[in-house]
Amino acid sequence: MDPRRRSPSPCSSQSPSPRNPTCEMLGYVGIEAVLDQLKIKAMKMGFEFNIMVVGQSGLGKSTMVNTLFKSKVWTSTPPGLGGPTPQTLKLQSVTHVIEEKGVKLKLTVTDTPGFGDQINNDKCWEPILNYINQQYERYLQEEILITRQRHIPDTRVHCCVYFVPPTGHCLRPLDIEFLQQLCRAVNVVLVIARADSLTLEERETFKRRIQHNLKTHCIDVYPQKCFDEDPNDKILNGKIRERIPFAVVGADQEHLVNGRCVLGRKTKWGIIEG
Prior knowledge:
- The chain contains six helices and nine strands; from the N terminus they run αβαββαβαβααββββ.
- The protein has helices at about 35-45, 60-70, 125-145, 175-180, 200-215, 230-240, and strands spanning about 45-55, 90-100, 105-110, 160-165, 190, 245, 255, 260-265, 270-274.
- A hairpin with a 2-residue loop joins strand 2 and strand 3 (about 105-110).
């Protein structure tokens, strides 16, 4: 008998199917305890999340990061007050440990000051791509060692938030060329910076134009199609794609609204919650 045509075991770990029926258990084994063990281990070790923010100066990148994590993760000097504009792009990283209800998160934020701020922005994205690839290579080299560390420091960029200026027109040639390369290296989340400067009609028109640019130039931002294997995930990802790019408003000041404190920007028309 050909071993390749041997019938599968009824206790196979594969998903149940007519050819792989579920094996009935005769007693308690303790499989359900695996989830508790994984949770205890994860709570003890904590999590690591590395995020990169890319965009021109003055788009509120630092404020948006602080709003997202409800803490002073990053402080920056307003453009024009901290000296001359940097002539070359130089990446800067800062790491904080955030704890919420016993869950620890080691958060690393990498900023890209100088991106797109020059008259000649040719190849200005190369330092960013080189940095991302270097972190992948560093992690891989640690992982393939015979006597590797018990816990390998993860410096890989897990997510890149790309800030689009609220021009109301479409993506710039700089954005298109860089995003085409960036999407091949990291998960990219596209956002419209300072979206409160647009009216609702302008915002929706701007979104449709950007969606058309992404489709025309084959720019695959997060969530990619490869995450649609599960039917439920496919439905959820479809709803997320309809909202891309996300319109965001950053704020680092608290205001009292209906008896609760919220982060927002105060205007003469009211408070825009971040």
